[in-house]
């Protein structure tokens, strides 16, 4: 998984050499603008444009530079490029901002490699600690701690990256929508009010591996057959009107021993439960787990359920949302206030300071985490203009030393 891209699309995984290379490009561009650039103890990159009043807390913007395997060219990087463009505009403006402005490229936002999403921003927010890192493993058994160490990041020192709420006034992330709400509505901008929660579970099903020819059908304990029923149960649960709004996906299934002449003795499922309602998110998850136990026992298999991650939905604060919508109105830019089905670094950063998000449209029916992911440069330009004006709006409207 740590090797450079193979197959179509972009493969730039969290805490890989390629991700570090992208951070270097970000840092050298920002240093070229005269900003003060640093890598924090968790591998996040931060570039600071000084404000007129150094005693004021900072306003931030940015996104992530890692991708899923065989992903698209816009998820995350659009928001980092937006930050670079805003930095270029603000650093050459005749009137410097009052607050320091910090431009951030977060490390390891995607959960694809280690199971946990937003690792860089979770460390910043104090939600992930050094002691958590050895247990987060990729498919080759390499932990976040080991991957960090291989890149020269000390996994025991990551908590030094934690942000102090007194030092931050607000944060806005620009991101591609990763859905088709905006293109379907012909709307150039989404302003996010709510980010879905996500519960990730791993289910291991243990049956009995034996010969496909020698074992009669009625004596089998087929782990894959049980797993398949669980996959369909997950889908029907999410389709049940009683769980309307829940999205459940089994995105990964591993079968052992994986031989055409052996009845599968073991199967592992990775399941992602998303919801905008925290109570329904947990109810749907526990109902899915109880159905999985029933299916496993009816098929004479054993199961083990592990909760890999459990993040609640986040309602983003109205003050930042208002700064964005006011700015959009002042620029004559149409927008739609909408929830985000995907999780984002902003969800974590909102634990430190009031945060908001600007969505730009995703073409090709909103496809994302795929090489077909596409946002047009003209749509991105509208988003970057709005981000610039919104940050200026925050810079002039935030009066207190610490607005948290
Ligand atoms: Zn992203």
Shape: elongated
CATH level 1 class label of the largest domain: Alpha Beta
Q: pLDDT under 50 segments (min length 5)?
A: none
Helix content: 25-40%
User: How many β-strand runs?
Assistant: 13
Ligands bound here?
zinc ion
Structural class: alpha/beta
Oligomer: single chain
Provide the β-strand percentage band. Answer: 15-25%
What is the name of the CATH topology of the largest domain?
Aminopeptidase
Instruction: Write out the CATH superfamily name of the largest domain.
Output: Zn peptidases
CATH architecture of the largest domain: 3-Layer(aba) Sandwich
Number of domains: 2
Short description:
By secondary structure, the chain is an alpha/beta fold. Helix content is 31%, strand content 23%.
Short descriptors:
Alpha-Beta Plaits, 2 domains, 13 strands, 31% helix, elongated, binds zinc ion, hydrolase, allantoate deiminase activity, Bact_exopeptidase_dim_dom, Allantoate deiminase
Q: How would you explain this protein's 3D organization?
A:
This protein has 2 domains: 17-196 and 314-397, 3-Layer(aba) Sandwich (Aminopeptidase), CATH 3.40.630; 198-311, Alpha-Beta Plaits, CATH 3.30.70. It contains 10 helices and 13 strands. By secondary structure, it is of the alpha/beta class. The strands form 2 sheets. Strands 1, 2, 3, 4, 5, 6, 11, 12 and 13 form a 9-stranded mixed beta sheet that branches. A 4-stranded antiparallel beta sheet has the order 8-9-7-10, with helices on one face. Helix content is 31%, strand content 23%. The longest helix is centred in the C-terminal third of the chain and has 21 residues, at 278-298. It has helices at residues 17-32, 77-91, 119-124, 144-150, 181-185, 223-239, 278-298, 318-331, 345-349, 377-397; strands spanning 36-39, 45-49, 58-64, 101-106, 168-176, 189-195, 197-206, 247-256, 266-275, 302-311, 314-315, 335-340, 355-360. It starts with 16 loop residues before the first helix and ends in a 7-residue tail after the last helix. Helix 2 crosses helix 10, helix 6 runs antiparallel to helix 7 (278-298) and helix 8 crosses helix 10 (377-397). Residues 64, 75-76, 109, 175 line the site of zinc ion.
